[in-house]
Amino acid sequence: MVTDPPYRTSYDYTKPRRRPAQWDRNFVGADQPFDPTPWLGFPEVILFGANHYWDRLPQGGSWCCWDKTPGRKPADFASCEWIWLSRAGPPHYFPHLWCGGMREGEENYSRLPHKLHPAQKPLVLLTFLVEQTAAPVVLDPYMGSGTTLAACMRLGRPCIGIELDPAYFAVACARLQQEVEALGLFA
To answer: What's the pLDDT tens digit per position in 147-168?
Structure first.
């Protein structure tokens, strides 16, 4: 399982900022604490935002620090995100710019002016994390805009995504259809 679950945070995606926010509401679960217990039975688990519920995680595993502002001053939100991996190993450090409109790689502002989901993650990061697993099928029970599944498709890995919000489910389906067409799958 590789996922970015909703968890309580003080960050409000709808608040006024220098550039107007594109979101008119926070996503489901952003105002609730997250309990990882139901998911810990999977053989391999990778959870974003784990510093918000670390006390509910079992001993062991490993951590990945995603530095969202490498070489820059942080903006009005966290400069890094902690990701917990159930598989033991050395800590990982993943520097990849992802700060509002400033985004590195194929999802930079010139290619993706607006993110597809308030909590969207970079495809290159999800690709790295999926590569850390040996699971025969990758599950993302909080798929949002489908980044985990897009990474799996590019890696040729079977995957399953689940999304509660019908609007974001439609966004993920459209995105994954574009991936299918770009990769020439089922042509």
So the answer is: 999 999 999 999 999 999 999 9
